[in-house]
Write a structure and sequence with these properties.
Number of helices: 4
Shape: flat
Order of helices and strands: HHHH
Largest sheet: none
Number of strands: 0
Strand content: under 5%
Length: about 110
Amino acid sequence: IKLVALLFIEWIMLVLAGLFEIVWAVALKYSDSFSKLWPSVIFMAAAWLSFACLSYALKTIPMGHAYAAWTGIGAVGIAIIGMVWFGEPVNIIRITSIVLIVIGIVGLKMAGS
């Protein structure tokens, strides 16, 4: 039961890593090529936290699964934020692509760890 709890914690850390990836990507947009202080600081902190959480998750989650989930969470989150917050186009192809990314992440989780 201890191993199951450990794996669960590491998947939580992986999700946090993906969420911090979303934060740093948005902060990077607002940093205006690192010319604005606070968005740049938020970018650096969120990027560090994202990599730290990913590093922790890699203790037991296979690298291929962890990296795919980390980038997938970031890609899905940024795509949704782009549509909602930044007025990027919303269409069936984008929505379908997001759903396929989520299916891929779930599939990797079910297949391996």
